[in-house]
Amino acid sequence: MNFIMKPLLIFILLVVCVQVAPKTDFQCGCVIYTSLPFMEKNADCSQSSANMKCLAQLGLSSLNLSDTRLRKVPDLNDPGFRAIKELNLSGNNITELADWKFGSMEELLFVNISHNKLTSLPNKEPLSIKMDLSYNQLEDMTDLVPLIKAKVILIGNSWHCMCNNSLVKQMYRKFPSFMENNIVCKKDDQLEPFAMHCHEIINNTENLEPNATIASRVLIVSIIILFVISTIYLLLKYFFDFFFSPRPQG
Ligand SMILES: *[C@@H]1O[C@H](CO)[C@@H](O)[C@H](O)[C@H]1NC(C)=O
Ligand SMILES: *[C@@H]1O[C@H](CO)[C@@H](O)[C@H](O)[C@H]1NC(C)=O
Ligand SMILES: *[C@@H]1O[C@H](CO)[C@@H](O)[C@H](O)[C@H]1NC(C)=O
Ligand SMILES: *[C@@H]1O[C@H](CO)[C@@H](O)[C@H](O)[C@H]1NC(C)=O
Ligand SMILES: *[C@@H]1O[C@H](CO)[C@@H](O)[C@H](O)[C@H]1NC(C)=O
Ligand SMILES: *[C@@H]1O[C@H](CO)[C@@H](O)[C@H](O)[C@H]1NC(C)=O
User: Fold this and answer.
1) Is residue 135 part of a domain?
2) 201 occurs within a structural domain
3) Which parts of the chain span the membrane according to its record (predicted)?
4) How many domains does the chain have?
């Protein structure tokens, strides 16, 4: 029995291993490899010239176009790119993004566009995916508005910090740690952290609050106090009525 079972088991194990093991091959000018556990296909086209039409046929879930001398985001409108979750465009010469959409990639979760030449960002809609924007040439602080609630990496950009600008003050008041952790300001030929560069507005944060928000807070607090007082009153009234009011005899 053992004599037959052992080789059979080993054979079955081998077949399973070969099926499950990640495969690597060369297609469309890129290295294509599968990743576990769902056997997703990834294309690593780093430092090579990819055939995009060909790649679109593969049903990829990640695409690495880093260091491929791109000057703009390539055409990614083919529906074959729909399942891509991760796009790597780092180390290119991309100077602008038209919007936050990357062709037909509807399931995109992360884009790495670090080490490019981006000088501005789309500022219509908020960014909803994770993005590495480090080491670009971003400098206009109005570009920060769509990023403020997103997961972004911004190191390696030197911002033109307008400390006295009302938008900047507002962003600082609402998201102080975002500003302090992500923004490095240009100062003459040097760089200075936001907190140091704009210490005047930081020192005066308490005075930045517009009267409207103060008024609405006062209103909310008053309503809560009123509610608590009336609840206590009603409870006490009920308590006294129950125990101390004369009961009808009968
Ligand atoms: C390309 O990017 C993928 C993920 O985006 C990464 O796993 C891979 O190591 C990268 N390749 C190179 C050569 O950097
Ligand atoms: C970007 O463009 C410059 C000038 O055209 C060139 O010298 C440089 O090698 C390019 N860099 C990349 C990463 O393609
Ligand atoms: C993207 O490409 C760069 C350069 O090839 C690499 O260092 C990085 O690990 C890649 N992956 C991600 C997730 O950015
Ligand atoms: C993005 O790519 C750069 C290489 O240009 C790499 O150093 C960095 O770690 C990548 N970012 C992330 C979040 O993986
Ligand atoms: C910012 O504005 C205030 C008054 O509005 C002024 O006193 C201050 O000097 C300004 N600071 C800078 C850095 O321009
Ligand atoms: C303002 O901030 C600077 C730097 O953080 C600090 O040295 C200074 O004492 C502060 N001034 C006031 C009035 O709080």
Assistant:
1) yes
2) no
3) 218-240
4) 1
Q: Is residue 38 part of a domain?
A: yes
Would you list the DSSP string of 47-66? TS---HHHHTTS--SEEE-T
How far away, in angstroms, is 135 Cα from ligand 2 center? 15
In angstroms, the CA 178 to CA 161 distance is 14
- For 159-174, the pLDDT digits (tens) are 999 998 888 988 888 8
**Residue 79 lies in domain:** 22-158
Give the position, in ligand 2's atom list, of the atom nearest the Cα of 92: 13
Residue 130's SS3 state is strand
Q: What's the CA-to-centroid distance between 55 and ligand 5, angstroms?
A: 55
Query: Where residue 130 sits, what CATH number does that domain have?
Result: 3.80.10.10
Q: Calculate Rg over the CA atoms of the chain.
A: 30
**Each residue of 13-47: pLDDT tens digit?**
665 555 556 678 999 999 999 988 888 999 999 99
Quote the pTM value. 0.76
* Ligand 4 centre distance from Cα of residue 218 (Å): 46
pLDDT digits over 65-82, tens only?
A: 999 999 999 999 999 999
Residue 200 falls within a domain, yes or no?
A: no
Q: Which amino acid type is present at position 231?
A: T
